[in-house]
Design goal:
177 residues; alpha+beta; OB fold (Dihydrolipoamide Acetyltransferase, E2P); six-stranded mixed beta sheet; five-stranded mixed beta sheet; 4 helices; globular; disordered C terminus
Length: 177
Amino acid sequence: MKASTSAQARVARSRSAANKYLTFVLGSEHYGLPILKVQEIIGILDITPVPRMPAHVRGVVNLRGKVIPVIDLRLRFGIEAQADTKRTCIVVVQIRPAAGADPVTLGMVVDVVSEVQDIPADQIEPAPAFGTTVDTAYILGVGKIAKRVVILLDIDRVLTSSEVVAAADAAPTASKP
């Protein structure tokens, strides 16, 4: 009976989180991630750079004994770099770079974490079409909250598989003596 109750509780939590998104700001734009992809939010830490990484890979951090790669979403999205502030955060997420691949834990630097928002499905529109030359596969949709729009990200697609591998490879390299 306990196993059944536990399974029911997991299903109920999953359903209640289905329309919940962690919202954050990059520059003047608002973004959101499905809350179920977020492991935790931490203040900015000292990030150890790793040589020969793409510009958007800031380096690695030691998070409670585990070394994880950290990317700067500003740079990944082509937004001008900005100095970290008191409000700068690292959002730690679990991503799956490809079907059947093991999950990868990685941190994403964002300007400001806003809040967890409930965005009903009827308030989400598909990603806008920008033509064949612009890849919008990493956009789940655009959420409408009051008079503001929130770009909802498919975090598994923000980085390409090869970028995830490169970032994940940075972590073991940095932890070697």
